[in-house]
Design a protein that fits this description.
The termini are far apart. The longest helix has 23 residues. The radius of gyration is 22 Å and the shape is globular. Strands 11, 12, 13, 14, 15, 18, 19 and 20 form an eight-stranded mixed beta sheet that branches. The chain is of the alpha/beta class. It folds into two domains: 208 residues, Response regulator (Rossmann fold), CATH 3.40.50; 178 residues, Rossmann fold, CATH 3.40.50.2300. α2 links the parallel β5 and β6. The chain contains twelve helices and 21 strands. Helices cover 31% and strands 17% of the residues. α2 crosses α11 and α8 packs across α9.
Length: 484
């Protein structure tokens, strides 16, 4: 394998870790989709802000009343001086689709942004102010120029992310930018101020419902757990945080941490044999689906598959059930914080996402990252409306950010399980998908069962776990002079 190809595969593996870290599914074009729960809840609502018990009569996004529409009696909003105001509300979608080594990298976030803008603008925009999506293409290794573009062109960064997002600092703070991030990768970006996320991803608190399920369901198997990970700094940090999560929960014994080449191995049989020789009974794999598929085939070849193979959300992928793969991957389990694409008819919000893509961006890519982007745009739009109410119909960055950071309950209208953007905490609820009979199938909770806490999710209290360790330096992402 030449160095260029190896570098590309390493990057793709890293992007897979991005999706795992934020708990999204990684479905490809042509999949259908879901929704659930409730609309946004903000801190300390006044009596005048109490929600109506009457059914909403306007446009909806799942169970969320649309935050888009025509101008109110106050007129079309204005944008604060020096914050890229104009006839449109310019929102930047960070992505890396222009990287020549992997064209289209995370383009689904940009595609979802365009579809959301089309849907919103058809209703009038944000109180009559149309949204204009600006493509902030970091081309993987060119984040600083993309950050300069953001500073000079957009009011806010919404619904995107860069793989090497630590490179956006300190410029992000210097120009007073705000972000409603679709995802973060580095500790620097994850713990930065000046931002809010629909599904927060702090480095020191992790979702645990999937690990609690495994602990309760496979109490003996998890006493001999192996974690395999790409031998790359970011991948290793994800593996270390997973190990720390298991240890903090108790009941797990991580007996082996097994690194593999970041771009994958030419021969996975030695790894399968190592699992067999050590009688490993539970396993997690940190990386991307393509490499796990090859390992699974090697495990079948040596005649040994651990009792439990449980992975993070990026493995909820069509690749795992593609022709030639599904039989080898039988019994595989993965968590997700998003409702399953296979149950699209149960979830109006994801059907709305699909409808928006079909109508406003039919050539765009449908995938889990698009759901994250859509949730971020909805969160921004709700916060923008609240800012306009509080700020005499003037949009101002810190005002919008402050309103976003008041939202304590968020599901994106039902795109995903409930999160707490205000507290920056990951979700306490989730579900387990599995490969059964050649297709993805809901494993847990069973719909309508005692384990279903509503909307098809199982929730634990607490459903998160605090961890300790060296998972990266967050210092440069924090500007102590900023209010938010």
């Amino acid at each position: 394998m030449n160095r260029r190809r190896q570098s590309v595969r390493t990057v793709i593996a890293l992007v897979a870790i991005v999706t795992a870290a934020v708990g999204c599914s990684n479905r490809e074009e042509g999949d259908s989709a879901p929704a659930s729960s409730e609309a946004a809840t903000t801190e300390a609502p006044s009596a005048s802000e109490a929600p109506s018990t009457e059914a909403p009569t306007g446009a909806m996004f799942g169970d969320l009343p649309s935050p888009c529409g025509p101008a109110t009696d106050a007129g079309v909003p204005t944008i604060a001086d020096g914050q890229n105001g104009g006839d449109t509300l310019k929102l930047g979608a960070a992505n890396d689709h222009g990287y020549e080594g992997a064209p289209g990298l995370t383009v689904e976030m940009l595609d979802a942004a365009k579809a959301f803008a089309g849907w919103c603008n058809a209703q009038g925009g944000i109180r009559g102010l149309p949204i204009e999506v600006v493509d902030l293409d970091g081309k993987l290794f060119n984040v600083p120029p993309a950050m300069e573009q953001a500073c000079s062109e957009v009011f806010a960064m919404v619904g995107g992310g860069w793989v090497f997002d630590d490179q956006m600092f300190p410029r992000f703070h210097e120009c007073g930018m705000i972000s409603f991030a679709g995802y973060t990768v580095s500790a620097t970006a994850a713990m930065a101020n000046g931002k809010v996320q629909p599904i927060p991803n702090p480095i020191d608190v992790k979702p645990a419902s999937w690990l609690i399920w495994a602990k309760n369901t496979y109490p003996d198997a998890i006493k001999n757990t192996a974690i395999l990970y790409g031998d790359f700094l970011t991948t290793k940090m994800v593996a270390d945080s997973l190990k720390a999560s298991m240890e903090a929960l108790g009941g797990y014994e991580v007996t082996q941490m097994i690194p593999y080449a970041p771009a994958g191995e030419a021969n996975w049989v030695p790894f399968a044999q190592q699992l067999k020789d050590n009688n490993v009974s539970a396993m997690s794999f940190v990386g991307e689906p393509g490499n796990l598929i090859l390992l699974y085939k090697a495990m079948r070849e040596v005649g040994y598959v651990p009792e439990l193979v449980l992975n993070d959300a990026n493995f909820y992928s069509e690749a795992m059930v593609a022709e030639g793969n599904a039989e080898s991957n039988q019994g595989f389990r993965a968590r997700t914080a998003y409702a399953p694409f296979e149950e699209a008819d149960r979830y109006p919000a994801l059907q709305q996402y699909l409808d928006n893509m079909a109508e406003y961006n039919p050539s765009g890519r449908i995938a889990g990252l698009g759901l994250q982007a859509t949730s971020a745009y909805l969160l921004f739009a709700v916060a923008a409306n609240n800012c306009l109410d509080a700020n005499d119909n003037v949009l101002e960055r810190e005002c919008v950010l402050a309103e976003g950071r008041k939202i304590t309950s968020w599901t994106g209208g039902g795109l995903h399980t409930e999160t707490n953007p205000a507290a920056g905490l990951p979700p306490e609820c989730g579900l387990i998908m599995g490969v059964e009979n050649g297709k993805w199938t809901r494993i847990y909770p069973e719909l309508g069962s005692a384990d279903d806490n509503g909307g098809g999710w199982h929730c634990d209290s607490p459903g998160t776990v605090a961890i300790e360790g060296d998972f990266g330096d967050a210092t440069s992402g924090v500007d102590p002079t900023r209010e938010n």
